[in-house]
Amino acid sequence: MTNSWMNKTRWTTAAAVAALVVAGAAVPAGAVTAPSPAAPAVAAPAVAATADGRVDPAAMREALAGLPDTYVRGAMVKVTGRDGRWSGTAGEWTAPVEAEFAIGSVTKVFTSAVVLQLVGEGRVSLDDTVQELLPGLLPDSYAPITVGQLLSHTSGLQKPRCVRPGTPVEIVRSAVSCGTPAAPGTVAQYNGINYFILGLVVEETTGRTYAEELDDRVLRPLGLRHTRLPADEWAWAEGGLVSNASDLRRFTTALMRGGLLRPAERRLLFAMPEVPGAEFSYGGLNRIALKDGTVIWGKTGTNHGHASGVFATAGLERVLVYSLLATGKDADKEVERIEKIAGAAFGGVTR
User: Fold this and answer.
1) What is the enclosing helix (H) or strand (E) of 102?
2) pLDDT grade for 54, boundaries at 50, 70 and 90
3) I want to staple 46 with a disulfide (CB 3.0 to 4.6 A). Which of 64, 143, 237, 346 is the partner?
4) What does the DSSP 8-state code read for residue 228?
């Protein structure tokens, strides 16, 4: 394989802080950089746009009660699925439920979908290594890291404390320029650099840009008219997409139902690596067990002041899309709010 990928310079960023933020992809779910301060607003009640089925409207309103507060200025929530529907907004979220927003690291699931399609086509294997696919990208001293380990965040790559702005190649190289990696496949450590590498794998394997492959394989086939990769978005395949609630619901439903993947690759969405502390599947989905025992699968993401997520039960009884206007003052408080929303959204789900 040639090293043609090493000369690609389509994607650049001038903001060093942006690259540092993407390096912080290992922060806890719900943690964000602080958005620009907003003028105080009078708390607004959640407004249900639709409600039916087994979703409890009172529980949903309670989950959004008290907004805005010190930690979350506003929120949008949309619950759909065979087992009920509900949607609403609260606090300073004055836009429609279907407004577009930066989805941050939820982008990773779109990237994993493209990679798994390539796996299904026999063009890439979960056992292929970065060193085979992208020779020269990582230091020669690094042990082989597989595509499966990148997808499941078990690559062992160190937290990218030395990351610098530039092309995806430059970001990856700077990220591994200091610190020491763990042995691949021995530890679970969420790391956005894994998905920069996967974006490069997509480009090298197909000979086309990541954006072109994403558009042809996912966005256009599913009619995701509100989902796009802005040309100047530094987070790229790791966290650069903009979308809206309905597009995220449609994408998640198609992904889990089999509209995007063949059966073997769809099973990987729910296949967890046998690594201590693993939280992400070979399909890049975060497995979370709620307090009542309900297991949901999905992804959180933060960008441009939005702390967002999309989660669903494996059987698609319910699909939750949310976005919080987070202040960044206390990640734990943001997580508490997300847990309330998820608990209400999946409460009483038919199993």
Assistant:
1) strand 101-102
2) confident
3) 64
4) B
For the stretch 1-49, pLDDT in tens is 334 434 332 212 222 223 333 333 332 333 323 333 333 333 444 444 4
Round to whole Å and give the CA distance between 29 and 254: 24
> 3-state SS string over 157-226?
CCCCCCCCCCCHHHHHHHHCCCCCCCCCCCCCCCCCHHHHHHHHHHHHHHCCCHHHHHHHHHHHHHCCCC
Give 85's strand partners: 52
> Measuring CA to CA, which residue among 133, 172, 127, 181 is closest to residue 152?
127
pTM: 0.89
Helix, strand, coil percent content, the chain, rounded in steps of 5: 35, 15, 50
Contacts of 247 (CB under 8 A, 6+ apart): 222, 224, 225, 226, 227
Q: Which amino acid does the sequence have at 264?
A: A
Q: Are 32 and 169 in contact (CB under 8 A)?
A: no
Backbone angles phi, psi at 86, to 5 degrees: -165, 140
Residues for the chain: how many in total? 351
Amino acid present at 317? E
Q: Based on the number of CB atoms within 10 Å of its own CB, is 112 exposed (0-12), middle (13-18) or buried (19 or more)? A: buried
Q: What is the 3-state secondary structure (H, E, C) of 276-311?
A: CCCCECCCCCEEEECCCCCEEEEEEEEECCEEEEEE
- Smallest Cα–Cα separation from 85: which of 118, 122, 57? 57
Q: Domains of the chain (ranges plus CATH)?
A: 12-37+45-346 (3.40.710.10)
Separation between Cα atoms, residue 270 and residue 349, nearest integer Å: 19
Which two structure tokens, joined as six digits, stand for 59?
Answer: 């529980």
- DSSP for 313-338, written as a single string: -TT-S-EEEEEEEE-SS-HHHHHHHH
Q: Which of 114, 52, 129 is nearest to 83 (CA)?
A: 52
Reply yes or no: is the peptide bond before residue 68 cis, omega within 30 of 0: yes
Q: How many CB atoms lie within 10 A of CB 277?
A: 8
Tokens of 21: 């933020």
Structure tokens at 139: 């230091």
Stretch 235-261: mean pLDDT: 97
User: For residue 231, what are its two tokens?
Assistant: 């040309």
